[in-house]
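Researcher: Can you fold this with manganese (II) ion in place?
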Amino acid sequence: MIDKTLIEAENASRQSDLTQDYEALGARLARRGVDIEALTTRAMGFGVAVPSWGTGTGGTRFARFPGEGEPRGIMDKLDDCGVIHQLTAATPQVSLHIPWDKADPSDLRAKAEELGLGFDAMNSNTFQDQPEQAHSYKFGSLSHTDAATRQQAIEHNLECIEIGRQIGSKALTVWIGDGSNFPGQTSLSRQFDRYLESMKAVYAGLPEDWRIFSEHKIYEPAFYSTVVQDWGTSLMTAQELGPKAQCLVDLGHHAPNVNIEMIVSRLIRAGKLGGFHFNDSKYGDDDLDSGTIDPFRLFLVFNELVELEDTPGLGLAHMIDQSHNVTDPIESLMISACEIQRAFVQALLVDRAELEGYRQENDALMAAATLRAAFRTDVEPILAMARVRAGAALDPISTYRASGYRAKVAAERPKTAAGGGGIV
Ligand SMILES: [Mn+2]
């Protein structure tokens, strides 16, 4: 963890600038009838889970270039997640991937408690083979033609639930790589039937207060067809399974230019939006840092979430799902969490009554201008003040660099080829 006195000293050196910026923004917002304090309170209440696998350097199918001081296992990953939350106060939970993060549940719980972290949704992994497993997932897992392979994948998901139950998680996210690479290779309909049958067996093992998330993805690793390829299939799955099943939207899992904010709206309407995997993309499932390519799209997603936030039963699991190939993953995850929080606060700034008035009058130009007015507002003083009040860093990156954390852990952690980072 980072020394508290360092955080305080770093914050003190920037406090006077922040005070001036916060007051100026507060006055500006007051002219629009907006209370800056209410926004700061909302910002402080916002959290997004960090993926344990995001703390290691990711890679592509061409290569992976390990970074300095990469986590050697889940306990190191949790340490890194603790630093991210300590400096941003925006990432109170960690999402685990099994079997990458397998460890004694009581050790996991104790470590998380020590770091002030909780556990978000569990993630199962049936898209690669593990050394000890009896049946290969080369041709599928939950939808495999072979019943024994399907059963093995079901049991793995049930094991994830059991581990999650012991560490206080309340959800399981299922993403499978199942699909086909050739037309005719598989029956599109019977493969989906097998998937649903397997998912029903997993669903039956859910504790009463748990949810299961179905995550769709258009392509990759299968390049001709994918079993859960879009939100339509994901919605069919969630509806067929029952009330504890919902859909998870990974922003990178769509064809280019798909209107994701509209998918968000539809899934909320159906009572089936369970959560997000945040990232950004230029071409496909790039897993780039949130808000680096298309911050306006991120804002538009949050605009829908804020507009519909009072929908009964809506409880979203916000998670980051990124692969950091060329940056220090801790820095990327901190910046990403802040960008996601920024989009949330910008969406809170939308004048909803004014927007609705323009909609009723069919004033398209002013409706769009209303959204842009919120998007263009620099809410950084609100985010920084939220962090300072929570005891986190006013400027997380500068403080992290000043702490020398990476060099310190690099001395303790030898370079590793493993680490479980990657694109999922
Ligand atoms: Mn994902």
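Model: Folded with manganese (II) ion in place. Residues 122 and 164 are 6 Å apart (CA to CA).
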